[in-house]
């Protein structure tokens, strides 16, 4: 009897030691993984700070009022990007005018009207493939189709139509996800009260999904601002400002280089101070867009809850 009790106590002690050792091993692995995760996060932050700091240190000396409000002129001896800023604004507005209604409408159809099946799967797969095509291929297509076939030539309109195809999947997917996050009780409640389906979508679903839709649109703006490869083939590199009031409308049919195009051209000419100045302006624009994304999405979310 005593031998049995001794063996039992030894087994219990052995199990406790094994469990303790096992727990210690788990703690060591957890600590190691935690350290690696923190290092990865710190590395990401360090890379961002390093890029921002390097670009701003190199380019902030070039950025001034004259640089932002004038155009480059050999006769006047000025260097500026006012025309490129205007071209960038044109590209953003024209692209969103085309892409936003189509993207949001496609998402509403896929999420609210289309019955799950082969057609919906084909559309979704096509959208995903479209979002993965390199931008240079979009530029080649836009040059051939919009520029040559439709006789639009090198123009801001050609570039905007090309970029509209590029950002269409981004807007569509974000709108779909935003609509899917709206509770089904909203739909059932509105339809149960006798509302027509389109009235329900227009007055209930779209306002509820607006934070996600706006986020998708602003992310699309970020991609438009940073695009260069497709615009090289479609929009050209013009940088002059219109001289007349009617010229501001006709400008959409003229060649126009955005900030990214001018950045590429400045680097190719060895004008590194100008290139870093443009890069600093672009970084400020991207940071402002990101802050607007969070602010507008948060504001709309609070308004929806109230």
Per DSSP E runs of 2 or more residues, the count of β-strands stands at 2
Give the CA-CA distance, first to last residue. Answer: 74 Å
Number of separate helices: 12
Output the helix-strand order.
HHEEHHHHHHHHHH
Describe the secondary-structure layout.
Elements: H1 2-59, H2 65-69, E1 71-73, E2 78-81, H3 82-113, H4 118-132, H5 135-149, H6 156-180, H7 184-192, H8 197-226, H9 229-234, H10 247-250, H11 259-268, H12 272-305
Antiparallel strand pairs: 1-2
Structural notes for this entry:
By secondary structure, the protein is mainly α. Helix content is 79%, strand content 2%. A two-stranded antiparallel sheet has the order 1-2. A hairpin with a 4-residue loop joins strand 1 and strand 2. Helix 3 runs parallel beside helix 6, helix 3 runs antiparallel to helix 8 and helix 8 packs antiparallel against helix 12. The longest helix has 58 residues. It is globular and about 70 Å long. The mean pLDDT is 84.
What key phrases describe this protein's structure?
single chain, 306 residues, mainly alpha, two-stranded antiparallel ribbon, 2 strands, 79% helix, globular
Q: What is this structure, in a nutshell?
A:
This protein has helices spanning 2-59, 65-69, 82-113, 118-132, 135-149, 156-180, 184-192, 197-226, 229-234, 247-250, 259-268, 272-305, and strands spanning 71-73, 78-81. By secondary structure, it is an all-alpha fold.
